[in-house]
Amino acid sequence: MIVLRRSIVALLLLCAAASLRASAGEVKLARVPEGGLQPQVVVGADKVVHLIYLTGKPNAAATNYVRSGDGGATWSRPLIVSDDNAPAIATGTIRGPHLAVGSNGTVHVAWMASPKAMMYARLPRGAERFDPPRNLVTTHAGLDGGGSVAADNHGRVFVAWHAPASKPDGDEASRRVYLATSSDDGRTFSAERAMFDPTGACGCCGMRLFAANEALLCIYRGATETTHRSLFLLASHDNGQSFAGSELAPMELGVCLMSTNAFAAAGGDALVAWETLGKISWGRVAPARGTSVERAIPAPGETKSQKHPSLAVSPAGDVLLAWTEGTKFGKGGSLAWQAYDSKGAAVGEVGRADGVPAHSLPAAFCNEQGDFIILY
pTM higher than 0.85, yes or no? Predict the structure, then answer.
């Protein structure tokens, strides 16, 4: 009888573990079309998967756009976003284009073309080509770490970048994060304006915008007195007119980290992932309650070469965190990932694969079947 009870208990535990593994979905890997670099992916409200990636020379790359109606199994014919007069920059991994999908399925792409040019282009729903790219910089040039774009469901589009407050060759402590906004689905934009109190900005670290539950979120790395390079998380509840913020991750370092960040929607909240001294962490932020992360969850592993996180969330609330390991300036590395349940508990073992190209990073999403796809 005791043996039978033990067997039943063991069987129940095995079934529970199998259910937990299934709840997190299967993780599938896929190469970026055309061997492209720096994929950025967004799943629209209609479940169409939108993807941009770079091809060509790293210092003068073409931005390509494709979409998929079958969860990434097949992709449409590529459309060119950037032209030869305003190429994207893959070099260093942090200056490439960002992607957002707004109201009526309009696609919005923004990228750094030069220190003087933060470019923007849109693809209205049903259009066969992107509108001609436009430079949104009016007075604050001096870009280095690229920029970002976000869009909501009310026709508002936001493009941000950091640059010196007074002159293009200002130091990092003088840099500010600037925001240009549109209320007509990207047809016109306001002149850029500073978003937050001066904290400096780490010159060649990336930043990220994200629209979540009527809030606009921004994460960027500050830079004061050369060594203070904390990450700051900002939130606006008035369509980018004003921001409140807090220090997300303190860090002391005398050089630029060349880091990137990631957001993902999680119900009415958002998930955010970031790097601190070669270690990736992620957590949940509820914009309605402020800009603090409820609990920082470190990515597993002892290596201090973790970089370039990506997040995906399933309809059940399960989370996939992907990142690179061993990548450096001009050098590729490996891909790593970890699945979590909706409460942030790790599910299964860390996954790993070789072959992340130089100047690239992963992009993860969840398909309609609940499986996670990592493009790299």
Answer: yes
* Segment among 81-90, 95-104, 308-317 with least mean pLDDT: 81-90
In a domain, 202, yes or no: yes
In a domain, 352, yes or no: yes
Q: CATH code at 121?
A: 2.120.10.10
Can you give the residue range of the structural domain that contains 146? Answer: 37-375
Q: What is the pLDDT of residue 168?
A: 59
SS3 at position 120: strand
Name, in order, each residue with C-beta under 8 angstroms of 221's C-beta and a sequence gap of 6 or more: 201, 202, 205, 207, 229, 230, 231, 232, 251, 257, 259
Neighbouring residues of 45: CB distance < 8 A, sequence distance ≥ 6: 105, 153
pLDDT digits (tens, 9 = 90+) for 329-354: 999 999 999 999 999 999 999 999 99
Q: Into how many domains does the chain fold?
A: 1
Return d(Cα 157, Cα 206) in angstroms, integer. Answer: 19
Look at residue 31 and tell me if it is in a domain: no
Token output for 271: 């998930």
